[in-house]
Design brief:
5 helices; Ubiquitin-like (UB roll); globular; single chain; 2 domains; alpha+beta; 10% strand
Length: 169
């Protein structure tokens, strides 16, 4: 079965050692997903697999045979940006922009986790069906995505104004 990347079937690489990140960047020329630390510590390579956030630098591409991978490029709908992409612009959620694709993909995955009731380290109610995405909850859940420029306030504002607002509704 092929891997589905941004809605299109793609062949699994012949080399089973190729990371998903390298397949995306080098094999498919999708440069939005960034290679930061290449050790899973910075979050720049975060993509969505079947709606869940993963670090693509730590994942072998062959593991995702038959799965749906969404990169930052796959979030755009026609000519319209994803609401979270627009929110990063509106809230100055980036400076250099290097971490931004991973931040956005991570935030989308994080919102889905909260909606399913997956608690974080600071969640007050571990048995809740849904987790309210307070500013503190967003900060905790996004702590695996680093921004070397220090645009954290804008990042949290963008997320809170988009997925935080959706969770409150």
């Amino acid at each position: 079965m092929p891997i589905i990347v941004n809605g299109l079937p793609r062949s699994i690489p012949e080399d089973p050692r190729m990371s998903l990140l390298d397949l995306l960047r080098e094999g498919l020329h999708l440069s939005g997903t960034k290679k930061g630390c290449n050790q899973g510590a910075c979050g720049a390579c975060t993509v969505l697999v079947d709606g869940e956030r993963i670090l693509s630098c730590l994942a072998l591409a062959v593991q995702y045979d038959g799965r749906r991978v969404t990169t930052i490029e796959g979030l755009v709908q026609g000519d319209a940006l994803h609401p979270l992409q627009q929110a990063f612009i509106d809230h100055d959620g980036f400076q250099c922009g290097y971490c931004t694709p991973g931040q956005i993909c991570s935030a989308i995955g994080m919102a889905a986790e909260a909606e399913r009731g997956v608690p974080s380290h600071i969640s007050a109610d571990l048995a809740a069906d849904r987790v309210a995405l307070t500013r503190e909850e967003i900060q905790e859940r996004m702590s695996g995505n680093l921004c070397r420029c220090g645009a954290y306030n804008g990042i949290v504002d963008a997320i809170a104004g988009t997925v935080g607002a959706e969770m409150a509704a």
